[in-house]
Amino acid sequence: MIVTRRAITATLSLTGLAALTSRSRFDPISAALANGTAEDVAEPVSLPQMALGPVDAAVTVTEFASITCPHCAAFNENTFPKIKAAYVDTGKIRYVFREFPLDPVAAASSVLSRCIADGDAEKYFAVTDVMFRQDWSRFTKPRDTLIQVGKQSGLDEDQVRDCLKNEDVFNKIVADRIYANAKLGINSTPTFLINEDRVVGNAPFEEFDRRIKALLKD
Fold this sequence. Notes:
Structural class: alpha+beta
Shape: globular
Oligomer: single chain
Strand content: 5-15%
CATH topology: Glutaredoxin
Number of helices: 10
Number of domains: 1
Strand order of the largest sheet: 1-3-2-4-5
Largest sheet: 5 strands, mixed
Radius of gyration: 17 Å
Helix content: 40-55%
Order of helices and strands: HHEEHHEHHHHHEEH
CATH architecture: 3-Layer(aba) Sandwich
CATH class: Alpha Beta
């Protein structure tokens, strides 16, 4: 059975922030998996692309991640800084972050990150880094954590609440998640597409380094 956008939206509902007190996860979307092309990966479905590096780079690395995913957090802490230093900051690749929330907290975190960044990719990556560094497993009230992160970024509590009530951004995140699964075959986090080459899981820097170098030589 294919899970519809309505079903996922209901599962991840942010109405009244009630879902932020829940730690339940939803089942992955069951759909026919299809291999995407580099063009599919580079073009966002609904939301403005959050990316670092030149638009015309020969290599694009696209990360699909969920903020509450511990493997994603480990990659963010240990591997992404090395990729950024070696390839993004030197202008050799473009790095795209795509939200693939696995639970209501991850969805809310992505909504808040988008709100704080307000279209600024550098700021978005900085806020996302802060989100990844939270120990979500320890908190029974993740709403308080989101409010704290918002305050660190200059928002007061009411502004954070207003951000989290943005159903338009939330629905677009859900739409992009459905697209990533049904069109690109993404069903776990973190998953990476290096142009059309796929890497699943928290792979070490050496794996990315090898694959990126091979593509840059083409």
